[in-house]
Specification:
The complex is a heterodimer. By secondary structure, chain A is mainly alpha-helical. Chain A has one domain: Arp2/3 complex 21 kDa subunit ARPC3. Chain A has a two-stranded antiparallel ribbon. In chain A, a hairpin with a 4-residue loop joins strand 1 and strand 2. By secondary structure, chain B is mainly α. Chain B folds into two domains: 150 residues, no CATH class; 83 residues, no CATH class. In chain B, 71% of the residues lie in helices and 3% in strands. Chain B is built from twelve helices and two strands. A two-stranded antiparallel sheet of chain B has the order 1-2. Chain B is flat and about 60 Å long. Classes of the chains: A mainly alpha, B mainly alpha. The interface between A and B is large, with 77 and 87 residues.
């Protein structure tokens, strides 16, 4: 999914870079209010987790692209959409600057797909499903699974849209094929991502429900339990 | 967890490139990559020029070609797309050893391979000469919003916490009779991924609270910020790389 330099042409990359910058600036403004003493270490850990998980790459040979887990839904569930998008964006920036995953000049495209589209799709679904489904661990698991699955497929279609706008090589009629291959491959990846997201979030929700942002936002009436200062003296 | 410096790709050395302030190196690297991407793909000589430039910086940084090229293999999954293009591309076709390949697709494949590789080499050089601590310091000096540098700081610290916890849980599983081999370890790992996350979080939270109680306010101490901010001279030295790259790109555009 990481687009490397030269796959999409310069002007389209520049437009998406401007879009990503604007969207991230908005997330920074909204995220500042969210980032308290509980969320700051969580945001760091979510970013580290996503970083580690994105190391697993599955090459999709038929289309010649690679796919991997994205983590947008996990971030949206645990730290909320604003900080969540920032977490994924930080992962992408560090990967591009230091590890050469995805071109630096294509950062705008990658951030748009994975950090913004992926997290936005996931959060919209989470907000909807948490209201509809019963408030049980099973309901939360289904929410996490579905939102992760959909967010991965949406992010992969972001790439198809960008390729259609500014791909450096004209694929002619093969663009539909690219869209199909990307969708099917990412459906499979999405299932894996959904399982990991669901297991992680359900475990966290069982032990420390106060840490799950999506659940916090849902029940504003109940005051959050006082955080046991987890063994600060230990 | 060790001290926050150093990472797998960092190469300890006292070369002139290592001594440059991080913000200067980040800027030069980003501008270089933009110049490379802006070059028209038919200007083959320009890419040769960029490669020479990368080689010169690598020599200055005392980073060996074998290390650099070996690490550059990381880009393989990302440029797989390039190898499919000659088959998928539309338009005019040529015969190459019995295969019908698209001319546009071949150009496209070269474009992705050349620009992708140069970008990866540039970021590897940045990684080899800059510690993670300096990288974040550089981003901070480039006026990157504090919330982002804060997330990045914790991310890099907690990566090691995660790896450490995962290793411990594996040892715990093995010592209780699990016999993980190859892919089957994944099952045990997947079952414990939620527990891993929680354990890492609780350790991470303790680290964070310890930092807060020692005066952390979301930014690393002023001692880090003050020392060694880039001088005009250093900016000028580092500017040579993007300036040469931009001249090559401009020449390629004009000659086209």
């Amino acid at each position: 999914m990481h687009i490397s330099n030269g796959i999409i042409d310069g002007p389209v990359a520049a437009i998406f870079a401007a879009f990503a910058l604007a969207a991230l600036a908005f997330c920074v403004l909204r995220g500042r209010a969210d980032l308290d003493d509980r969320l700051a270490p969580m945001a760091g850990l979510v970013a580290a987790f996503i970083f580690a998980v994105q190391m697993l790459n599955f090459p999709i040979f038929t289309a010649g692209v690679s796919g991997h887990l994205l983590g947008g839904a996990l971030a949206a569930l645990l730290v909320g959409p604003w900080v969540g998008a920032l977490c994924v964006a930080v992962v992408l920036v560090v990967q591009a600057l230091v590890f050469g995953d995805g071109g630096v000049a294509m950062l705008g495209l990658n951030i748009t797909n994975m950090a913004i589209l992926g997290t936005a799709a996931a959060y919209l679904l989470i907000a909807l499903l948490l209201r509809v489904l019963p408030r049980t661990p099973a309901g939360l698991a289904v929410t996490a699974f579905v939102s992760a699955l959909v967010s991965v497929v949406v992010a992969s279609q972001g790439f198809v849209l960008q390729y259609w706008l500014g791909g450096t090589t004209d694929l002619g009629g093969n663009l539909g094929g690219l869209a199909g291959t990307m969708a099917v491959a990412h459906l499979l990846i999405g299932i894996g991502e959904g399982l990991i997201t669901a297991t992680t979030v359900v475990t966290v929700a069982k032990v420390r429900p106060d840490l799950v942002y999506a659940l916090r936002a849902l029940k504003p009436a109940v005051p959050a339990p006082a955080v046991p200062v987890a063994g600060g003296v230990r | 967890m060790g001290a926050g410096h150093g990472h797998v790709l960092y190469r300890e050395s006292g070369s002139p490139v290592h001594r440059l302030p991080p913000e200067v190196k980040i800027t030069a690297m980003v501008l270089f990559t933009v110049a490379v991407v802006a070059t028209p793909r038919e200007a083959y000589w320009a890419f040769g020029g960029y490669a020479l430039l990368v080689a010169a910086v690598a020599a200055l940084a005392r980073v060996g070609p074998r290390w650099l090229l070996g690490r550059a293999l990381i880009e393989l999954p990302f440029v797989l797309f390039a190898f499919a293009l000659p088959f998928l591309g539309a338009g005019e076709r040529v015969e190459v050893v019995g295969l019908s390949l698209s001319v546009d697709g071949l150009h496209g494949a070269f474009n992705i391979l050349a620009k992708g590789t140069l970008g990866v080499l540039a970021s590897l050089l940045l990684a080899a000469t800059t510690t993670t601590r300096d990288l974040i310091l550089g981003l901070d000096r480039l006026r990157c919003p504090q919330i982002l540098t804060q997330i990045a700081t914790f991310m890099l610290r907690y990566l090691e916490v995660l790896v450490g916890e995962a290793r411990r849980m594996r040892v715990a599983r093995v010592s209780r009779g699990d016999d993980p081999r190859f892919l089957w370890q994944l099952r045990g790992f997947a079952a414990g991924v939620g527990a891993l996350f929680l354990r890492a979080f609780e350790r991470g939270e303790r680290v964070y609270l310890a930092m807060v109680s020692r005066g952390y306010t979301g930014r690393m101490p002023a001692v880090w910020q003050g020392a060694g901010a880039a001088t005009a001279g250093q900016w000028a030295v580092a500017a040579t790389v993007p300036v040469i790259a931009a001249s090559i790109a401009a020449a390629a555009l004009v000659l086209q």
